[in-house]
Amino acid sequence: MQKFIPFYKSKNSNTSLDTFKSQLMSNSEYECRVKVNQRCLIDKMLSRYSTKFAVFRELLQNSDDATSSSVEIVFDSTKGENYSRLLFKNNGMNFREQDWDRLKKIAEGNPDEQKIGAFGVGFYSVFSVCEEPFVSSGNSGMAFYWQGDQLYVRHGPIKNSDSTWTTFLMDMRNPLKLPNLDEFCRFLTTSLGFTTNLRQISVYFNENELLNISKEIIGHPRSIKINSNINRESPEKLFKLESVNIHNVKFEVITTPRTVSYRNHEKKRVSVCFQIASGNLKVQIQRKFSSEMERLTKKKPPSKTTIQAILPIYSRSSDMTFDIFKDLLPYPEQGNIFIGFRTHQTTSYSVNFAARVIPTVERESIDFAEKTLSVYNTEMLCSIGALCRVLYEDEMNQISQLYQHKSDENQLMLEECSVRILNHFTFEQSTPDVKVGNIIESQFYRCCSSQLSILSTHGVKPINLIRLPNPEMTAFIKTTPVVPKIMMDHCESFFSRANSILKLIEQISINDVFKELKNRILDVDEMIALMKWWITRNFSITDHNNFMQLATVNIENKVLHLKNIRHFQNPGIINPGLDVPSNVLPYAISQHFNNKLDIFKQNFRNWTEISLVTWTRYIVGKYNFKNNPAFAEEFISTLSRGFKNAKKEDQFAICQLLSKIECIPTQFGVKRPSKTYFSDVTLFSDLPNISIKGDEKFFTEIGINKYVELEVVFARLVNSENLDHMKLLKYFAKFSEDLKDSDIEKLKKANIWIKECTDSNKSVNNVQRYLARDLYTPCYHNKELELPIINWKGHWNKYSNEAKFIIGLGLQEYPSIQTIFQLAEQSQPLELREKSLQYFIKNFKEKYFKIYNANLVHIKFLPCINDIYAKPSECYSNPHCKKMGFNVLRQDLCFLAKEIGVKKYPDYNLLQDKLVKNLPNMDNAKEIFEFMYFATHESNSNCKVLQNIKFIPIQEKVSPYKIIYHKPDECFFKVFNENYVDIFKCVDFGETANKFLKDCGVKQEPSTLDLAEYLIKSSREFWSKLNNKDSYTNILGTIAHNYEYLNKIKPGILDTMKRCPILLGIKKEVDISGTTADVYELACAEDIFINDNDKYRNIFNPLICPFTDRIEKFYEVLGSQSLDANVSTTTQHIAKEMTSIISHKVNEKILERVPWYYSGIKGGDLKNDISWIETLQVKQTDQINMNYVLIPKHEIKTNQISACVSENGNRLILYITNENYTDIANALVQRIHRRPERQHCTNLYLYLTSSIEQLHQLGYPTENICVNIKNVKIDELPNPPEPIKQLSTDEFENMLLEGITSCKSNYNRSIPTNNNPVETFMTEEKYYDSPLIYVKTINYIELHIKDTLDPSIILFPTATMEGNIQKFINVLVNVAEIFELPRNKINIFYDDDSTMVAFNRNKTLFFNLKCDIDHGRPFNKNIVYWFFTFCHELAHNFISPHNADFVYYLQSYANKYFSKLTDKIGHQSTYNQLVS
């Protein structure tokens, strides 16, 4: 096949295309004109003119280009406030022919390079308001009209009476509302800002003038010198700024209010003056660039052009607030770029600029999209930046000249003027195009080689020489030029940008400070300000050293260098007026830091506060105090004030200095400190007292005596004076705080004080004196208690200093607790005893409570009943304590019993001793037990300690009615059977007394443990007293139901019970009359058998357990054995065994009927499953003897029987002597059941002897269910998995049910390979990995086939295969109904090459049709087979591997649902018979 080559890639493609084009162009008959839908074109153009008043903007621009000086706008209305016609007139140059020609052409702009129009679409903005405009100019006119979507014109001469005006007539499509006059006036005023020729605009509504706006050039323009350091050329040298001139302009607006009558209202007139700066640019464009410009704009670039800026005229009184002029003078907002008229592009400065940049079509934005136009416009904007710099520097030059002759008022005016200038040229991001502002600002700074000039505190200087001010430094920075405050406040944005972004100006620095300090000496105020600033900063060590070296201050006409200062003065310690060393910072400076003296240490590293000891050395070394007591007093007062805050070593040094000199002024002159006393030490008149007030501690430390030494006092007292003890007391009390501890101890041991009531005849010298602690205060209560009282002169006031002092020496205020006890004991007079006791009671809480301890009181001071005195621990407050012989506190004192430690009841040990030593009798037991209840509950005592003490009296009911005492654990309050009343000890002493006995251990009634222990001890006695089987049985039943609990609370009790004859056994006996009756006996468990074989019981008549269920289980626990298990049998048949007609008949009967019997068995009583029946042989013999041996008793019995089952090697043989189905049934039941019963024999006998019709009428299953169910294991299940052991039976059955409900549907999905089935069932294959394909669904059951087989085997089966499928579905549905499994969760698959029976894929069950076809089992056998297959696969829902846990689940399902299987087989067999 030939490879395809695109045409445009073929070798001759270019040649071929050129040929095709030439052929087409050479034939003119194919030519046609491209048609333009002019209406759509104009509409699309107008969509670009979305600006408000766009029509007026374009017409005003055209008027200015036509050299018009005046414009009239007339809104014509015939009705109401809306206008329907608009006239726009200008007095410019009349239209020339080429102008008319261009007017009717779209997109053919004005070729004049000095004109604004470039695109030739501005006029067509009139179509935004009208359909058919008309233009008249001179004596010609042009009418526009539409024909369909095409625009046509008619142009020709007209008779025009007013040919000086060019008029645009526009009839509105719909009447329009007159524009907002304020907004319209603002637009027109702004539009007039940069017009070259246009000077006046008038607006009329019909004939009424609404607005008149005029612009007037005032005076002659001023030329600005362009400094040589300014680069006049733009970066790409397209433009060069040739010159700049400024002329003043006056705008005036006259408005007439629009009301009902326009004529009667006064016109409003506002005006403003400003400057228009014009920069004249020389255009230097290369020819190639010019050609590209001409191609793009359809006009040549101009050879020269002008850029303009509007600047305000600065005057402090000028008003720039008129809203009409806001767009002309936008300060403080950004100005706009004017391209003839105002655009929405801002300039980034607060100045409007006009420039002939090339706009976009809608003339609102500057064109940066086209590369050539972008270069042109960028260069033009750079020229605007240069013009801004020229204008700015011109303003600063004017300010600089005025600064030379400044006054305070002029200074403020210059600063305000500088603020205005800076704010006008402060950059802000322009919008919508940020590039515009960035270009202008960049060129503003880049065009000049010198730094920007600004006004500083020292005139106009380059900005890099000026610093941003720091208010904290203003007070001491005088020679460094900084930005004036008003400029910082109002030009924050400029200086922030200049500092952080443009890096033009810096903050004032430490080097500027050093320069200031180097150049001049500061005065005191400047130095204070400098230091306050310095301490707020964290400078380096180098800066600190420079600062200390340079800083000097003039103070009191002396120059002080900070580097010589070492200390500063604390006025709180040393008075400012006192003399200090020369290296201390003058107080004139430091006083301004009084609250922050620590800052000197932190910020002036080698300065420290002058210490008191340093100053003391300076003063002591310089002055003599002997002749100058006034200075000495001031000096000592200063030291006194600061001494306590001085260091310990400084205090010591000061004391050493002062102790050696005479420096303390007294009434006897200036003395050494050790020779003087405090001013209030007046014990003797010749003591020199100090006259200075100050810190007593300081005076004491330097050696001034605060009191007269005790040795002096004692010496004067002994030698001659013998002062009055009260006078001495007052003296000592006065100076008590200054006495040393040793002095106090001396006073405590001194016999100074006199007792009251001393013999008045004795002289003072002969009066006996006592220690203070031996006397009591002169109070009433001390006198009442006859205690020794101090002789006190005057009124006693314990709060006085004298009283406090002597009490401190030991004078007792009240008797001690031991003294009170001694005064209150029984040996004292009765009156004194009562007074003492009442005083103790009254003052107990206040004076004695904290020190009182009842256990430590050994004096019997408490009166009890019967005039006995006792210690607190020997008496009690409850009067009932007397019943048991205890002391009882006198009742009027019981209210205080708890506080003084008298208990309500005796301790439990005392109560127990009393109870045991004085056992209660039947008369007082109730009273004593009631008292014991309250006493023991009061103390929360544990009465269980009494449970082994015999103290409960019980009187015998028979003579001699002896009282016997019993332990609590032997007694009960009641028994549950009145027959037990005489057996158990029952007591009742009333409700309260019984509560005490209950606490001691008396039980409400005998517990199971009590019953068990009683039987262990006295079972035969109990049986003999009762001789009542039912009562004894009740006890055994109680114990049997709680034996596990008994063994738990008392381990080993079951072992004891095994050895004791506590169990009832029953046997049959024949009395004299020959009547057989049951006889009950007590025996040990090992002597009693569990009756699980009535036959053996009849043979041996042993003692058997007369009970079933729980009590029988209890007998087994204690050791009773199975009767059946303890009887061995041996058979002996006489004559030869043979197969006879009878044996054959019996064999067939067994094979037919015994399975029916098996199917009706419920529960787990089976001894062997049905499999043994299939191998059972039946033989007939003449006679059968059966030997029975009761093994534990060694008893042997022999009986003749007609049937028995014996094992002969590996064979089971039923021997019979005749067709006696009673014995046959009995023999078979012994093999089938663990515990054969009479009913079992009866049922089996019915199966063997009744006809099918009779069995059917009786409701027995009679269908043929002789199936092979060898796999059915009905024996006990294996041990369950560990998690199952924790579940109850109900919980486990719910788990099995959840295993069924968790089975999933397959949902018509095919089975891919590696589908991870679980292990398979009953096959040589362990896993099934073959892919299966879904074929169809029958009766909600999905059918699948192996992927290598033809699906039509299932999809379109043969008749035989159809029958096989239906038969298999019928079997599976019946089995599923047994498990209540929905049909849609059963899946059939067909694989003729696999022995697989079934598999479980993620809880989805699959069963093999091929397996069912191959086996061909009868229906009943088939149901059984697939029943166990279901059990197998359901077990896999819990566990995958075939292990012991798996078998447990499988057999659990088989056991649970086997009864339903048998029911299903019976019903289904009947159904199948009817069908067949």
Description:
With 1476 residues, the protein is α+β, with helices and mostly antiparallel strands. It is 36% helix and 18% strand. The chain contains 48 helices and 49 strands. It is flat and about 170 Å long. Residues 42-140 form the Sacsin/Nov domain. This is Putative hatpase domain protein.
Indicate the proportion of strand residues: 15-25%
Tally of individual helices: 48
Average pLDDT score? 83
Please tell me the total number of domains: 7
Summarize the amount of helix as a percent range. Answer: 25-40%
The order of strands across the largest sheet is 5-4-3-6-2-1-7-8-9-10-11-14-12-13
Name the descriptors.
single chain; 1476 residues; alpha+beta; Heat Shock Protein 90; 7 domains; 14-stranded mixed β-sheet; five-stranded mixed β-sheet; 48 helices; 49 strands; 36% helix; flat; disordered N terminus; disordered C terminus
In short:
The chain is of the alpha+beta class and 1476 residues long. It has 7 domains: 38-178, Heat Shock Protein 90, CATH 3.30.565.10; 213-450, no CATH class; 514-674, no CATH class; 707-808, no CATH class; 1008-1122, no CATH class; 1125-1258, no CATH class; 1282-1475, no CATH class.
How do the strands and helices of this protein lay out in sequence?
Layout: H1 13-25, H2 38-47, H3 54-65, E1 70-76, E2 82-90, H4 97-103, E3 134-137, E4 140-147, E5 150-157, E6 166-177, H5 181-191, E7 200-205, E8 208-224, E9 239-255, E10 268-283, H6 287-297, E11 304-312, E12 336-339, E13 341-346, E14 352-354, H7 371-403, H8 408-424, H9 434-446, E15 453-456, E16 459-462, E17 467-468, H10 485-490, H11 492-500, E18 506-507, H12 510-519, H13 524-534, H14 541-550, E19 552-555, E20 558-561, E21 567-568, H15 587-590, H16 598-603, E22 608-609, H17 612-622, H18 629-642, H19 648-659, E23 664-666, E24 669-671, H20 696-701, H21 710-719, H22 725-734, H23 741-748, E25 753-754, E26 769-770, H24 780-784, H25 801-808, H26 817-824, H27 830-842, H28 844-848, E27 862-864, E28 868-870, E29 875-876, E30 887-888, H29 908-917, H30 925-938, E31 952-955, E32 963-966, E33 971-972, E34 985-986, H31 991-1000, H32 1008-1026, H33 1029-1040, H34 1043-1049, H35 1053-1059, E35 1063-1070, E36 1076-1083, E37 1089-1090, H36 1094-1100, H37 1109-1118, E38 1121-1122, E39 1127-1134, H38 1141-1159, H39 1171-1175, E40 1177-1180, E41 1183-1190, ...
Parallel strand pairs: 1-7, 12-14, 17-18, 21-22, 29-30, 33-34, 37-38, 40-44, 46-47, 47-49
Antiparallel strand pairs: 1-2, 2-6, 3-4, 3-6, 4-5, 7-8, 8-9, 9-10, 10-11, 11-14, 12-13, 15-16, 19-20, 23-24, 25-26, 27-28, 31-32, 35-36, 39-41, 41-42, 43-44, 45-46, 48-49
Helix pairs in contact: 7-8, 7-9, 12-14, 17-19, 22-25, 26-27, 30-31, 32-33, 38-41, 40-41, 45-47, 45-48, 47-48
